[in-house]
Amino acid sequence: MAVQAAAMLFLMLLQFGAIDSRILNKPTIYVVGDEQAFKYDGRMLDVAVVNQAAHDSCRVNGGAKLFSSGDDEIPLVLGLNYFIDSSPIACTSGLRMAINATAPPPPI
After folding, report:
1. Is the distance from CB of 82 to CB of 65 less than 8 angstroms?
2. How far apart, in whole angstroms, are the C-alpha atoms of residue 22 and residue 31?
3. Is the dihedral of CA 9, 15, 18, 20 positive or negative?
4. pTM to 2 decimal places
5. How far is it, in rounded angstroms, from Cα 71 to Cα 37?
6. Any idea what DSSP says for residue 106?
7. Using one digit for the tens of pLDDT, what is the confidence trace for 17-68?
8. Contact 70, 31 (CB under 8 A)
9. DSSP string, 58-91
């Protein structure tokens, strides 16, 4: 129950802009090397960088990278980047996201 409450609080903070995320304040075009900032209570939540199957099922895959500091900046790689909270309850409550990062534009 506490995880569900934390997930709802996170979503409300995200919706109202109280979560410091530099990516969310940028245009919706993401390029390789942009950083997704995650600010959260590391005692209750975490961030796992997972593959698509893990994202879709809310189950952390083997080899996933787990962050739990509460203040993480994760660089985006080329293609789809999948992030979830490792708790299946929090993840299915909405604590998951996918960001597509493209190659940077060529220099002019």
Report:
1. no
2. 13
3. positive
4. 0.74
5. 7
6. P
7. 444 555 455 557 899 999 999 999 999 999 999 999 999 999 999 999 999 9
8. no
9. T-PPTT-EEE-SSEEEEE--SEEEEEE-SSHHHH
pLDDT for 14 beyond 80 = no
Do 58 and 92 touch, CB atoms closer than 8 A? yes
Tokens (6 digits) for 38: 């995650």
Alpha carbons 102 and 79: distance in angstroms, whole number: 6
Distance CA 10, CA 22 (A): 16
Alpha-carbon distance of 76 to 53, in angstroms, equals: 18
**Which residues fall within 8 angstroms of residue 12, CB to CB, at 6 or more apart?**
none
Give backbone dihedrals phi and psi of 106, rounded to 5 degrees, phi first.
Answer: -65, 150
